[in-house]
Amino acid sequence: DPAGAEYYQKNAEAYIAKLNQLNQQIHALIDAIPPAQRKVVVSHQAFGYFARAYGVEFHAVQGLSTESQASAKHVAELIKEIKSENIKALFMENLSDPKMIQQISAETGAHVGKPLFADTLSDASGPAPSYVQMMQYNAEQIAQGLR
Fold it and tell me: Where does 32-147 have alpha helices with state H?
């Protein structure tokens, strides 16, 4: 669509600027937290990109799939790690069963934050109806949990 090239280029530039601004906002939130405190427990391994970009260490109850089951041994090791490393923030994803995270919270005293969005967006009236809003929401929840 050569006739639309200028329109597409302007939209791409505007979106890249929005993404750069988002990146700066997230860095400001996370960088205000000492690196030693940037440890979070989540339901499953879905935040590798966030960990690499913002220096947050994620510990997962489950593997990459929400369908996988955590072994009792893994959960016991994770509880021990939460206590020894003084991890304060636990999160489940919006599509995950909360039971395991709630059990870990009860055993460790770590706070369960609002659900994070990893594999889907919210509906239009929710907190994460677009990629940018999802990233803002997740970053705010993670930063709040880490403080």
Answer: 48-54, 72-85, 99-108, 131-146
Instruction: Report the C-alpha dihedral over residues 22, 47, 50, 87, rounded to 10 degrees.
Output: 110
CA atoms within 13 A on the CB side of 97: 11
Chain-centroid distance of CA 36 in Å reads: 17
pLDDT one digit per residue (tens) for the chain, 147 residues:
999 999 999 999 999 999 999 999 999 999 999 999 999 999 878 899 999 999 999 998 875 444 556 678 888 888 999 999 989 899 988 877 778 888 899 999 898 999 999 888 999 999 999 999 999 999 999 999 998
Q: Is the pTM of this model over 0.70?
A: yes
Write 76-85 long-range contacts (CB < 8 A, 24+).
78/41, 78/104, 79/104, 79/107, 79/108, 82/41, 82/108, 82/110, 83/108, 85/39
Sorted by sequence, the CB contacts under 8 Å of residue 89 that are 6+ apart come out as: 39, 40, 41, 110, 111, 113, 142, 145, 146
